[in-house]
Amino acid sequence: DPESAGEPPSDRLDEIGRVERELARMQEEVRGSLRSRARLVALGEAVPPDELEPLGEMSRTLLRDAMAAFLDRDMDLAADVIHGDEAVDSEYYRTFRALVRKTEVEPEHAEATAHLQFIAKNFERIADQATNISEQLQFARSGSFPMDRNPAKEI
Hints:
Largest sheet: none
Shape: elongated
Radius of gyration: 18 Å
Number of helices: 4
Helix content: over 70%
Order of helices and strands: HHHH
Low-confidence stretches: 148-155
Mean pLDDT: 86
Structural class: mainly alpha
Oligomer: single chain
Number of strands: 0
């Protein structure tokens, strides 16, 4: 019996596998951001730029909270992560518009601004993946996706 041997039950193993896949996706986002950061350094740009700080902090918070919710099976914290993703999306679009304006005003920095945009999108995707972890936790506990949302319908 796996449970008596100290292994989690199979449904928990499935949850762990889904979280592991989300973390692997996040790892790719981080790698992409590091490549863009290296290019920014090569271009002589300030790293990290002030434009990305709020978005990065919000994404980091959602990831930390999603992992805490998963480990503690905290449904309230999972719900907070899911609702927090909307704020990250709003901040991402604000950042995107600011970077577009920066390109218009300083076209000589267009390449650097493009790399900032890549990093911003990676932060936004990390927040989405943290949200996926919280949604998967809610689904595992309740059998339905939060707010009657079925991610399969969004594809």
